Amino acid sequence: MPDKQFLKCPPLRFREFEKEWEEQSLNKFLKERKEKSTVLNQYKIASVSAKKGLILQEERFLKKIASKNDIGYKIVGSNNLVVCPQNLDRGTICINLDLGKVLVSPSYKVYLINYSFISVLFLFFAIRSRKNNEIFKLIIKKGTSSGRVVTDMQKFLKLKFYIPSLSEQNKIASFLILLDERIKIQSEIIKDIELRQKYYLNQLMERQLRFPEFEKEWEEQSYLKEIAFIIFGTNPKNKFYSCDTNNFKKINQIKFECLKSGQIRGLDEFNLKIRYYSTEDIKISYDKLLQEEDLILNKQGKGTAGRIGFFRHSIFKYSTIINSCGCIIRANKTIINSRYLLYFMNSEYIGFKKLHDMAVGTTGQVQIPVEKIKNLIIKYPSLQQQQKITAFLSLLDEKQNLEKNLLQNYQLQKQYYLNNLLI
């Protein structure tokens, strides 16, 4: 059999297929659909999300979209290809697999797919592959003064892809669908654990659930400032290098990491795709360096103020500070367990929403006032009971983290197969 390096075929193939793939332009199997709505509210309005594909706007914005006039919006049917030319470099291209007829903005492009040349599901996976997303970036052009980019749609239709036989297309698509189904099941498992976590957390804090060895009512409650040290973040003048996670080792002699408050996602989750390091000595008091089991509160930003993270040296290996948009909550461990405090502040007694609603300001840079943070009321039992509650809830955390790691592995597997089953 010839060396596959010299064949027009992908690195991985199902063994029953040996024929080379054929190069085809998109315009061979796509035809623009120009049908438009003629009456008001003819169908629901949808838009393209780079992550989720085609979604109804009422779901995307969590409210019904009442367009003043959607006459003239483009009609999208089942299995039509939809492209948002303004953001194609970000992946705003998808196929309408399950919404039925919907409307999209007149600025979108809608295409009918010729099933005699290409499988809808094969095309669905092909356009979402990383390689093809890079190809789409080559046909964008800068917009007007707004700086937005748009796609040259004539060049888009002339783009060439390698396509196998319909039988091989269907085989590849069926295999990738199985992976998608496994990812969906795994996502549902995680959602179920999250619901159980929330239920047990609130039931334990409200004393609706109790451990049998602890019957005494909780008598203790204090202001946060009485049971924890509250230390506000800082913005040192030192130079910090930003780098993605894969490249930080290239920075020599790292001495400090700066955690930005916007990187706090809640509990044990941080957005660390980009990290900020300094190679300089920072003149800063020891108490402003994050310590093991510190709580980190993001106190600023619309949609983000109120998120609380939990600091671990296993994640942050260098001396770490939080910027001035955040603050450190350092529990007095003779009174309160740090992890218990984290759980209590994330329960319905306080929680993200109540903290966020405390923020004041007229722009996106709303901020939770210092005194409101200090005067949060914390209820707590004995240290022994705190530890029991913490141990129980931590088991659920560990279970969730295991399932999330499994989901990530499935997603990486899918990306691997997308890159290697397609050209």
UniProtKB/TrEMBL annotation:
Segments spanning the bilayer are 108-127
| InterPro entries named in the record | Restrct_endonuc_typeI_TRD, Restrct_endonuc_typeI_TRD_sf, Type-I_RS_S_subunit
A single Gene Ontology molecular function, please? Answer: DNA binding
Q: Which residues form a coiled coil?
A: none
For this entry, list what GO says about its biological process: DNA restriction-modification system
Alphabetically sorted, this entry's keywords are: DNA-binding, Membrane, Restriction system, Transmembrane, Transmembrane helix
- Lineage, top-rank taxon, reads Bacteria
Specify whether DNA-binding is a keyword of the entry: yes
This one is known as Type I restriction modification DNA specificity domain-containing protein
Q: Which organism is it from?
A: Ziziphus jujuba witches'-broom phytoplasma
